[in-house]
Amino acid sequence: MSGLPNCPECGSDLTYTDGTVMICPMCAHEWTEADQAAALEAQIVRDANGSELSDGDNVSVIRDIKLKGANKLKQGTRGANIRILADPVDGHDIECTIEGSGRMYLKSELVKKI
């Protein structure tokens, strides 16, 4: 075991280094530690205030949000038990339970952690 990370493209564990560049012999992907750190940072979901969100957190809506139909979520509406989505749906990267509305997708920049 070399202690090098698996390839972010194909997941191969056969990576090797050439100077400061890591290379995957399986798919020929090349990346640096800075690239890998930036990719890990991009996976972190943050609220409107910059706080890191995680599964199970409770959130509050920071502004009125129009929904399909005549409904809307008012500012201050609380969402419970959020779940971070691995594959965002139209920019909506969290799913939570809104009392009276059920489960729905929200954008993390429209909520704050409670």
In brief:
With 114 residues, the protein is mostly beta strands. It has one helix at residues 33-42, and strands at 16-18, 21-23, 30-32, 59-61, 65-66, 72-73, 78-89, 92-98, 102-106, 111-113.
Characterise this structure.
With 114 residues, this protein is mostly beta strands. The chain folds into 2 domains: 1-43, N-terminal domain of TfIIb (Single Sheet), CATH 2.20.25; 59-113, SH3 type barrels (Roll). The chain is built from 1 helix and 10 strands. The protein has one helix at residues 33-42, and strands spanning 16-18, 21-23, 30-32, 59-61, 65-66, 72-73, 78-89, 92-98, 102-106, 111-113. The strands form 3 sheets. A 5-stranded antiparallel sheet has the order 9-8-7-4-10, with no helix packed on it. The longest helix has 10 residues, at 33-42. The protein is elongated, with a radius of gyration of 19 Å. It starts with 15 loop residues before the first strand and ends with a strand. The mean pLDDT is 90.
Helix content: under 10%
Share of residues in strands: 35-45%
**Order of helical and strand elements:** EEEHEEEEEEE
- Uncertain spans: none
The top level CATH class name of the largest domain? Mainly Beta
Structural class: mainly beta
What does the overall shape look like? elongated
Strand order within the widest beta sheet = 9-8-7-4-10
Count of DSSP strands: 10
Rounded to an integer in angstroms, the radius of gyration calculated over CA atoms is 19 Å
CATH fold group of the largest domain: SH3 type barrels
Distance between the termini: 42 Å
Largest sheet: 5 strands, antiparallel
**Could you say what the CATH architecture of the largest domain is?**
Roll
Structure annotation, total helices: 1
Mean pLDDT: 90
The total number of structural domains is 2
Domain Protein YjdM C-terminal: 45-113
Domain Protein YjdM N-terminal: 4-32
Pfam family, one: YjdM
Protein name: Alkylphosphonate utilization protein
